[in-house]
Specification:
Layout lengths: L1 E2 L24 H4 L20 E2 L7 E2 L7 E5 H7 L4 H4 L6 E5 L5 E5 L10 E5 L2 E2 L22 E8 L3 H4 L6 E7 L8 E11 L4 E14 L3 E12 L4 E2 L4 E2 L4 E15 L2 E14 L4 E2 L4 E3 L2 E3 L6 E2 L7 E15 L3 E19 L1 H12 L12 E20 L5 E23 L6 E28 L4 E22 L8 E2 L3 E19 L2 E12 L2 E2 L10 E2 L2 E14 L4 E13 L2 E6 L5 E6 L3 E14 L5 E14 L29 E12 L5 E11 L9 E2 L2 E2 L7 E12 L2 E8 L7 E5 L7 E4 L4 E9 L1
Length: about 775
């Protein structure tokens, strides 16, 4: 069999400083000492350190003092786990899941809030919004940027709606990546080299580096980060005789410049660049399937049969500028950014062509000549410019808060193109284009927001928050080549949408003791309407906003002289006017996003976070959650013919791709060796429960709902450190579990499973200077 020759980007890390010795990963926690470390420490500490967050825009706050459900992953923990991207840490966060569609193509889910349309979880890196940037016709939130996470200060996950502070697309929560900032007071450098081998695949590597250079002592510094990562493929395309076609290479870097203008004023400029090239998704078909007389046999583990090549190209550029001035009675922050992303995605349409053959056989599709194979090519570009100005007060009296104004301007240009596949190359046959539609979608968002906390007594506090938003959306679309001649070419009528509204938040908290805080909270979230990137004009062009309402109680506690923290939260979230994937055309052949009405779904659950140092040098981190997310009305079309999500979308049906149970356990134990060496051993066990509902589509020719079984993944690690260096041996997916992460089950990809990377054994060498 031949190896996949999919071209990789000719990129090496741009900003790895000359002269850095490539001996391995600088312990991320050592790069800028974070305010928290849950890993073992050489100073013999017997207690847990304080965890500090800034995501609530009121300065640095201890997690245990914030009456809200938050998970923080420190730099030390990220380094110990070998975190490179979102999938490396997400299973360790209670209440956080993701719908995996391959490299650079994930939809983030918090507290079971998951439906078609725009993103429901806001994604930020520092002060830069990254969400709502486009994807498939029914999943605009399903392709959120997945930047490399080297040289991170920490990751903060805010669970539950955060609409008052973060606005659109934070209706389930917020994930914020906090980078290490340039430091004008000291020189720093780090480097990492990681070599590994994947079962049923081949060799992988990671090369990363960072340098922090003070240019003017105490005044001006530059921080440069670069990386080049390659993951071998592990799926064979048996139809095209290609081994390991799903390889991926990600490379890029970031630049930060900090000017400490005076003791109270600073200015930070940032540039990010990343390029991802992938040979395709890690797909398997473990089940036989038939559409009429067209049979699709199971391919077996590690194999998939597809007629067309399916590469994925993803390029991200980000430019940002943040100014901060301390008035002493308050702090002013002005943050502006420009996010530019370009994606080109290839999808094999051959099975959907066989579906059209089936429809022809029953007289439901015109008698056009349908090629043996087909491929969709979907280039997209998204540009998001945003500015936020906020002022957080520091008055020496009981009421303090934050007020701000936010504006963004987003433009998405995308195109859907369907071609016959060239059987010899697997790529599009340009002379046989079957469809072409063009879209230009622009959105302008304006918002005023504020939150204030009144300390009624030393123990009792009341918080109130409000956000007013004003969104304007315009769409221009045109059919250049009608799909199989269905329709006529030409521009569609322009679409215009204007939405205004307000959301609010309230929180009452009471400190029982110095180590125990309880709270009750009501909060709201919303997400913007969107555009259907549809193949045919019969799918509605746009859809409207939807909202969430969250009722929550929680407790944050410390025990045993700060050797243990235990936090718990229980919630109930309703979804109103929910964005849903509707079916259109004969046999539900086409899909797009619409809106249900009223209260359509509900998610109820409990989250638990426990961190303990039961003995010196041993840290245990336990997390778990239970989620019951389901529809609260019939959306099958039987009750209301105007909304057809699928015949299985009945009252009480689970929301799609949401497991009921998740749990994780992490343990790390450190100990001293002779000669100034220190060793550590540890590991993670992550459990993801079964998923009962993956589709609401039950057609006469097929039931597309496939239950995903539960799975457990185990990662093991051991390291030795000395002076500035560290060597770590690791085994990821130690028991070589073939997990079913997601299912693509429709007429395009019947009974197709996305699976995880097999057992991977590697060595990671690092240095920090």
């Amino acid at each position: 069999m031949s190896e996949n020759k999919h071209k990789q980007p000719g990129l090496l890390p741009y900003f790895i400083a000359a002269g850095l010795t490539t001996v391995g990963a600088a312990p991320a926690g050592a790069q800028t000492p974070p305010p928290v470390s849950n890993s073992t420490r050489d100073d013999g500490s017997t207690t847990l350190e304080e965890v500090v967050v800034t995501s609530f825009k009121q300065g640095a706050q201890s997690v245990q003092d914030v009456p809200s459900s938050i998970e923080v992953l420190s730099a030390d923990r990220l380094e110990a786990m070998g975190v490179t991207n979102f999938a490396d840490f997400s299973r360790s966060v209670p209440g956080l899941n993701f719908v995996d569609s391959g490299p650079g193509d994930k939809r983030y889910v918090i507290r079971g809030i998951n439906s078609a349309g725009e993103a429901q979880t806001a994604l930020y890196i520092d002060n830069i919004p990254l969400t709502g940037i486009g994807a498939a016709a029914t999943d605009f939130g399903g392709s959120q940027a997945d930047l490399d996470l080297y040289d991170m200060h920490q990751i903060e996950v805010l669970r539950g709606p955060q609409g008052t502070l973060y606005g659109a697309n934070s209706q389930a929560g917020v994930i914020r990546f906090v980078t290490n900032q340039p430091d004008p007071n000291k020189f720093e450098a780090s480097t990492l080299a990681d070599l590994s081998d994947t079962q049923s695949g081949s060799g992988n590597y990671q090369l990363k580096g960072m340098v922090n250079l003070p240019l003017i002592d105490g005044k001006l510094a530059v921080r440069l980060v670069g990386y080049d990562d390659y993951d071998s493929g592990f799926i064979d395309n048996t139809l095209r005789d290609e081994n390991n076609y799903n390889n991926a290479r990600q490379a890029g870097g970031r630049l930060g410049i900090k000017w400490q203008i005076d003791a109270d004023t600073s200015l930070v400029g940032q540039v990010f660049y990343q390029r991802l090239n992938s040979g395709g998704q890690p797909l398997e078909r473990p089940y036989d399937f038939a559409i009429g007389t067209n049979n699709f046999p199971a391919n077996g583990e590690g194999n998939y049969a597809q007629y067309s090549a399916t590469p994925h190209y993803d390029e991200v550029r980000i430019y940002a500028l943040t100014g901060v001035h301390d008035f002493h009675w308050s702090e002013l922050t002005v943050a502006t950014s420009y996010f530019d992303r370009a994606i080109t995605d290839y999808q094999d349409d051959t099975t959907s062509f066989r579906f059209f053959n089936f429809l022809q056989s029953i007289g439901e599709f015109p008698p056009f000549a349908i090629p043996a194979g087909g491929v969709s090519v979907s280039p997209e570009s998204s540009r998001l410019g945003s500015t936020e100005v906020r002022l957080n007060t520091k008055f020496n009296f009981p009421i303090n808060g934050v007020v701000g104004v936010y504006y963004d301007n987003r433009r998405n240009d995308f195109s859907t193109n369907v071609y016959a596949t060239n059987p010899s190359t697997g790529y599009p046959e340009a002379a046989t284009q079957i469809d072409q539609r063009e879209f230009e979608d622009t959105t302008k968002d304006f918002a005023l927001f504020g939150e204030a906390t009144w300390k009624i007594t030393d123990r009792l506090s009341l918080l109130g928050g409000l956000r007013y938003y004003n969104d304007v959306r315009d769409l221009q679309s045109a059919t250049e080549i009608p799909f199989f001649g269905l329709g006529v070419p030409g521009p569609d009528a322009p679409e215009h949408a204007h939405n205004t509204g307000s959301i609010w938040k309230s929180n009452l908290s009471y400190r029982l003791t110095d180590q125990a805080l309880v709270y009750a909270q009501y909060s709201e979230g919303f997400r913007a309407g969107g555009t259907n990137a549809a193949t045919v004009a019969l799918v509605p062009a746009q859809y409207n906003p939807d909202t969430t309402k969250n009722y929550e109680i929680g407790a944050k506690t410390g025990w045993l002289d700060n050797r243990l923290t235990l936090n718990v939260a229980a919630y109930m979230i309703g979804i109103y006017n929910m964005q849903v994937a509707e079916l259109f055309g004969a046999g539900g052949a086409f899909s797009g996003v619409g809106n249900a009405s009223g209260k359509d779904a509900e998610s109820k659950g409990v989250e638990l976070d426990l961190t303990a140092r039961p003995i010196d040098n041993l840290v245990l981190i336990l997390g778990g959650n239970y989620t019951n997310a389901h529809l609260t009305k019939d959306l099958s079309g039987a009750t209301d013919a105007s909304i057809d999500v699928g015949t299985l979308a009945v009252n009480g049906a689970p929301l799609l791709n949401v497991p009921e149970w998740n749990a994780s356990l992490s343990a790390d134990y450190g100990f001293n060796l002779s000669g100034g060496y220190r060793a550590s051993i540890g590991g993670d066990v992550d459990y993801t429960g079964s998923v009962a509902q993956t589709s609401y589509d039950d057609e006469p020719y097929a039931n597309f709902n496939v239950r995903l079984p539960a799975y457990t993944l185990v990662n093991l690690r051991a390291s030795v450190s000395w002076r500035e260096y560290q060597a770590q041996l690791y085994v990821n997916n130690a028991f070589d579990k073939n997990a079913e992460l997601n299912v693509l089950n429709d007429v395009d990809d019947p009974y197709t499973i996305l699976t995880n990377r097999p057992r991977t054994v590697g060595i990671r060498l690092s240095a920090h200077f």
